[in-house]
Amino acid sequence: NTNEKFVSQCHAQQSLNRMRDLCLADKLTDITLVVSNIEITAHRLVLSSA
Questions:
Q1: How many helices and strands (H and E) does the chain possess?
Q2: Does residue 26 lie in a domain region?
Q3: Nearest to 49 by CA among 16, 8, 23
Q4: pLDDT of residue 14
């Protein structure tokens, strides 16, 4: 049936949790923000989506 679809109630939260875990582990971070000598690593894709 072509009208069937998959719906995940927790996909967004699980994705955000996984991205946070990767960032905290300093994995897949591709940009470093520097403010007042404080360095913050981040995901460029996440920053661009804001």
A1: 2, 2
A2: yes
A3: 16
A4: 92
